[in-house]
């Protein structure tokens, strides 16, 4: 039992401790809430100051981040541009109708020169009529790719009405062949050569101004059998014919019990012409064999052969010696045979007879068997051009086409111009030359229209000045001087000058050669990187966004699934 005195002492002790604790707490100074917050802030600042600073992003990471942003923005911009181009193509504008008071400008052909003219021409100044047997523009540099199925022919065709419907003023198009140009009567006689004809299939079209851009035919040089047994490479139909005959040769070669000699003949593909077209076709057909044919038709692996025949000492004569040597060495790697100094003399259904110049200068006649013969050399005058030349005394000494002056006016005529392969200039008959000629004529015609408008204004101002006096007369005189200055500026258009941008050619095995004009010199290159440049250049040169997309899709399809080896 606890002692009462002890319990009393314990109670006193507790009270004493409690009193001291209270006194101690009372003796402390009381801090305000503001001071407490300041203390917390100082502590917080010290904790942040003691922490290590956040690391800055590395330069490499920053570069990649900005690269990604720019790529994303470029993709968005490109998508928007493509979408707008498609919308614009699908929604043509309302056009101004023909005006009888304006001059009638007739354009013959839908090739490089004519379409380049039509694209840049202000059609509001003229009543424009286009006449051509084909209602589309063909991007011919990619035509060799169509022969093997790398590119579909529809991808490089641009309907002519896609072009004419985008103009501000109405452009009339007739799908017809121009059979005769009567210069004295100022009319063009046309004929409907389609399979379906109406009651009227021949008529005439009058003109005030005429542009002849009908191109040229394939030249056979009078060699017997060329037209009957060869395939040309100028039109879509030619590419389709080559593609069909190529597969015919393959399927016939593996026919049961076919002889060895006949197999070798059928699988021998001969290309005549060592220019860009012939070289590109030889490269394309060898690629077709290496990448597709020998996989799906292995029976032909040992006998398939491509030979390029050229009468000159080397191929691609417009390129530098360095690129010629590179092309020949590449063809040797690809097992493409080049027969230079070999002139074709006769063509039969199974072989060609050629005169071969030996290294010692002697000549011998040789028979070269073939299954497919592609003739890719030379241009000849079309009958309608030859007929026009016969009407003009100034053209009597011309042999290769219509002789023109520095403004592309046909010699011996007035208000008749010629562009492209049917015109004789100081430049080679290439698509690049024809395109620049067409653009030049568009500037010339636009200038002529502006000149006539200013001259009309000057005449009206002169008449008004004669009826005025004093300040009004002086004011009109000042306007006349301004119009005269404007007229002089408008008329300052010089003669046509060709600007060579360079030459490109695909040589197979994903290689190309390029001879590009740069400043005052040339840049010659060849190889895989040049091949990528060749593809990008041709893709950018395609006429429309539609063509570019279709060609790009064709290339992707061929890369993923290969070329089609079926026969149409």
UniProtKB/TrEMBL annotation:
Gene3D superfamilies linked to this entry: 3.50.50.100
Record's keyword annotation contains DNA-binding: no
Molecular function (Gene Ontology), one example: NADH dehydrogenase (quinone) (non-electrogenic) activity
Gene source species: Aspergillus coremiiformis
The External alternative NADH-ubiquinone oxidoreductase-like C-terminal domain, residue ranges: 500-564
Annotated EC: 1.6.5.9
Catalytic reactions on record: a ubiquinone + NADH + H(+) = a ubiquinol + NAD(+); a quinone + NADH + H(+) = a quinol + NAD(+)
Domain of life: Eukaryota
EC class name: oxidoreductase
Protein name: NADH:ubiquinone reductase (non-electrogenic)
Positions of the UniProt region annotated as Disordered: 28-54
Residue span, FAD/NAD(P)-binding domain: 104-438
GO CC, alphabetical: mitochondrion
Alphabetized InterPro entries for the sequence: FAD/NAD-bd_sf, FAD/NAD-binding_dom, NDH-2, NDH2-like_C
Keywords noted in UniProt: FAD, Flavoprotein, NAD, Oxidoreductase, Transit peptide
Record-stated family: Belongs to the NADH dehydrogenase family.
């Amino acid at each position: 039992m606890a002692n009462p005195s002890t319990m009393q002492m314990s109670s006193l002790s507790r009270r004493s401790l409690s009193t001291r604790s209270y006194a101690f707490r009372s003796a402390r100074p009381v801090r305000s809430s503001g001071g407490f917050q300041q203390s917390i802030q100082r502590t917080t600042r010290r904790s942040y100051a003691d922490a290590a600073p956040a690391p800055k992003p590395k330069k490499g990471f920053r570069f990649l981040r900005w690269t990604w942003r720019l790529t994303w923005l470029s993709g968005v911009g490109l998508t928007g541009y493509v979408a707008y181009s498609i919308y614009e193509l699908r929604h043509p504008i309302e056009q101004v109708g023909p005006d009888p008071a304006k001059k009638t400008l007739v354009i013959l052909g839908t090739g490089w020169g004519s379409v380049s003219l039509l694209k840049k021409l202000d059609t509001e100044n003229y009543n424009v009529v286009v006449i051509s047997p084909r209602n589309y523009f063909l991007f011919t540099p990619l035509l060799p790719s169509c022969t093997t199925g790398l590119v579909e022919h529809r991808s490089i065709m641009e309907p002519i009405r896609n072009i004419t419907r985008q103009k501000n003023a109405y452009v009339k198009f007739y799908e017809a062949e121009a059979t005769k140009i009567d210069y004295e009567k100022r009319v063009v006689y046309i004929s409907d050569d389609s399979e379906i004809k109406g009651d009227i299939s021949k008529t005439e079209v009058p003109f005030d101004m005429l542009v002849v851009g009908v191109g040229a035919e394939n030249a056979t040089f009078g060699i017997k059998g060329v037209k009957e047994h060869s395939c040309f490479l100028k039109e879509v139909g030619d590419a389709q014919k080559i593609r069909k005959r190529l597969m015919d040769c393959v399927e016939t070669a593996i026919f049961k019990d076919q002889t060895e000699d006949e197999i070798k003949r059928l699988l021998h593909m001969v290309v005549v012409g060592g220019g860009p077209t012939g070289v590109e076709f030889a490269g394309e057909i060898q690629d077709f064999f290496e990448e597709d044919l020998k996989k799906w038709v292995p029976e032909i692996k040992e006998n398939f052969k491509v030979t390029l025949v050229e009468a000159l000492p080397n191929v691609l004569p417009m390129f530098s010696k360095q690129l010629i040597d590179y092309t020949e060495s590449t063809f040797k790697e690809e097992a493409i045979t080049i027969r230079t100094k070999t002139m074709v003399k006769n063509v039969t259904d199974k072989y060609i007879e050629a005169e071969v110049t030996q290294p010692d200068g002697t000549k011998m006649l040789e028979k070269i068997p073939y299954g497919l013969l592609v003739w890719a050399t030379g241009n000849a005058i079309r009958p309608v051009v030859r007929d026009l030349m016969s009407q003009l005394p100034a053209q009597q000494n011309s042999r290769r086409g219509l002789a023109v002056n520095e403004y592309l006016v046909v010699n011996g005529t007035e208000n008749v111009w010629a562009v492209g392969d049917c015109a004789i200039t100081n430049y080679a008959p290439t698509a690049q030359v024809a395109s620049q000629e067409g653009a030049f004529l568009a500037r010339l015609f636009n200038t002529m229209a502006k000149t006539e408008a200013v001259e009309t204004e000057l005449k009206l101002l002169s008449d008004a000045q004669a009826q005025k006096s004093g300040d009004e007369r002086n004011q009109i005189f000042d306007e006349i001087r301004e119009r005269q200055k404007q007229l002089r500026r408008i008329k300052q258009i010089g003669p046509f000058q060709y600007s060579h941008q360079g030459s490109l050619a695909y040589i197979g095995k994903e290689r190309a050669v390029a001879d590009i004009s740069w400043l005052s010199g040339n840049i010659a290159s060849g190889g895989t990187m040049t091949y990528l440049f060749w593809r990008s250049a041709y893709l950018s040169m395609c006429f429309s966004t539609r063509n570019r997309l279709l060609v790009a899709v064709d290339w992707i399809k061929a890369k993923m699934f290969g070329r089609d080896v079926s026969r149409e």
